[in-house]
């Protein structure tokens, strides 16, 4: 897989130019940062947790994807409670209980078609230079806004169709996994892509703390499954998760509405804006120099042509006279 991380690419380019020109002063901006162990320990390793505390976008994104991730792993405990064993509703065998997860995978596959459709629409408008395509929230978050209601629907669907008396056909609650898989993947992909777009150079730190948070939730939330389902029952255990998911569903909508303003007050986003402005000025200066060099070359070529023409015109004179 080709490298795409900008600091690495710039560092390689600077190294190549130093080798070609012999000029040791050609460096990438990122090479000017200290590379000591103290700097790595106090800045690089602490930056993800600093962003979690001080960056609203990182904090609320971590909350949302951690809940979705935790519910996914909680299902590995909840499905046997609902479908498997003598105390369950449907008395499935372990094999049958495992097959109940298939609709989650089907929903995840359906998500791919939505992503392809959205990307086609997005890149079409990028080519048309539509103003909204330059705003990170409008590029990424509509899919998360779509996925949230699907996740909420799946939880209420599972809870209220698997706890009726008499029991409904097991395929009815099992099919709720389709909407869960669809909503889960839409949320995860859209929110993580938004983190990358919003923080660019600092995206690795934002992604690191997001991965840490969702892994913690994925490990701890399933531990509460048995107690929660035995205390609240299947219906209200799923409904409790559904109500919590309903509350956090507003997060991507809030980012769409206020995300640009939030990024404007972010220390990291302000730093990125300064870097972009400086790079744009440098790029404009480089283009100006190239244009001036090209104009100088053109003037020299024009001068050679004019000089050659004057010399050739001497043939019109009769020097024998």
Describe the structure.
The protein starts with 5 loop residues before the first helix and ends in a 9-residue tail after the last helix. It has 13 helices and no strands. The protein folds into 2 domains: 55-257, Growth Hormone, Chain: A (Up-down Bundle); 266-305. The chain has 321 residues and is an all-alpha fold. Residues 312-321 have a biased composition (Acidic residues). Keywords: Membrane, Transmembrane, Transmembrane helix.
Brief sketch in words of this structure:
It is found in: Membrane. With 321 residues, the protein is an all-alpha fold. It has 13 helices and no strands.
What percentage of the residues does DSSP assign to strands (E)? under 5%
What's the count of strands?
A: 0
Distance between the termini: 78 Å
- What is the string of helix and strand elements? HHHHHHHHHHHHH
Region (Disordered): 277-321
Membrane topology: Multi-pass membrane protein
Keywords: Membrane, Transmembrane, Transmembrane helix
GO cellular component, one term: plasma membrane
């Amino acid at each position: 897989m080709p490298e795409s991380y900008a600091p690495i690419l710039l560092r390689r380019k600077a190294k190549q130019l130093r080798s070609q020109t012999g000029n040791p002063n050609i460096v990438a901006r990122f090479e000017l940062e200290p590379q000591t162990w103290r700097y790595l320990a106090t800045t690089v390793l602490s930056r993800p947790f600093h962003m979690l505390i001080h960056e609203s976008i990182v904090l609320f994104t971590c909350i949302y994807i951690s809940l979705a991730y935790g519910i996914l792993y909680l299902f590995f405990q909840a499905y046997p409670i609902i479908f498997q064993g003598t105390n369950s509703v449907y008395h499935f065998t372990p094999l049958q209980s495992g097959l109940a997860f298939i609709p989650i995978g089907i929903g995840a596959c359906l998500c791919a078609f939505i992503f392809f459709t959205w990307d086609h629409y997005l890149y079409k408008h990028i080519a048309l230079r539509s103003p909204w395509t330059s705003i990170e929230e409008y590029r990424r978050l509509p899919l998360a806004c779509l996925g949230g209601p699907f996740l909420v629907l799946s939880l209420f669907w599972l809870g209220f169709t698997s706890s009726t008396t008499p029991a409904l056909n097991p395929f009815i609650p099992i099919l709720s996994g389709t909407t869960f898989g669809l909503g889960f993947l839409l949320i995860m992909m859209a929110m993580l892509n938004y983190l990358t777009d919003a923080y660019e150079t600092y995206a690795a730190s934002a992604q690191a703390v997001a991965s840490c948070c969702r892994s913690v939730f994925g490990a701890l939330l399933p531990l509460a499954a048995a107690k929660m389902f035995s205390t609240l029952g299947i219906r209200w255990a799923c409904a409790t998760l559904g109500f919590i998911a309903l509350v956090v569903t507003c997060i991507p909508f809030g980012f769409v509405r206020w995300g640009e303003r939030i990024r404007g007050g972010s220390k990291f986003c302000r730093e990125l804006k300064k870097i972009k402005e400086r790079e744009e000025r440098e790029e404009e200066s480089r283009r100006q120099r190239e244009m001036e060099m090209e104009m100088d070359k053109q003037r020299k070529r024009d001068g050679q042509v004019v000089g050659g023409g004057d010399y050739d015109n001497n043939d019109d004179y009769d020097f024998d006279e």
